[in-house]
User: What shape does this take?
Amino acid sequence: MGEGTGMTETFGVDFLVRWLAAVAEAVDREADRLTELDSAIGDADHGANLKRGFAAVTTILAEEPPATPGAVLTAAGRQLISTVGGASGPLYGTLLRRTGKTLGDGDRVTREQLAEALGSGVAAVSQLGGAQVGDKTMLDALVPAVEGLRASFGAARAAAEEGALATVPLRARKGRASYLGERSVGHQDPGATSSALLFAALDDVARTEGAS
Assistant: This one.
């Protein structure tokens, strides 16, 4: 549950666990669409890989609940790296693991602290993949989403969804899609699309707690 401390609301382990469970549900629901997007400009395995990975995350968090919000995300990232093949496992795993490590050992976090930590996770993803905003990758959704999260959960969701849609006219400059050159134009990036699901799930969970 979120708790107000003056004007600042904080979130504990349960919130982060519910978020990742909501992500797993969203990925399961959208797996076919993610794979369809990936079939146009990738390896046609994005949906299946993420579905398997986040299902495994949900399982390990239920079996061994971590003690802090940071530990939740660190464990989730580690599980994704070990479970998911292709590029998405290391990228999403790095995102969550670095975010968790940045959060540290605190029992509760604020939305602003989560945004700051996710920013470090996104920077690690950029370094790992060598991509920037505009390269038609997950960063096109992640970077604006983190900026949005500094304002509200809803703003993060909207920014991520807009960022994913904005990949359609872009030419891919990184990853498998970059091999297609101009043929990558006109397709929505699957990584940006799945990244938007993360922030939609975060907003949904926040709304159930009346958080902003």
Summary: The first strand starts at residue 3 and ends at 5. Helices lie at 13-41, 46-63, 69-83, 88-103, 111-129, 139-149, 153-165, 190-208. The mean pLDDT is 89. The beta strands are 3-5, 8-11, 109-110.
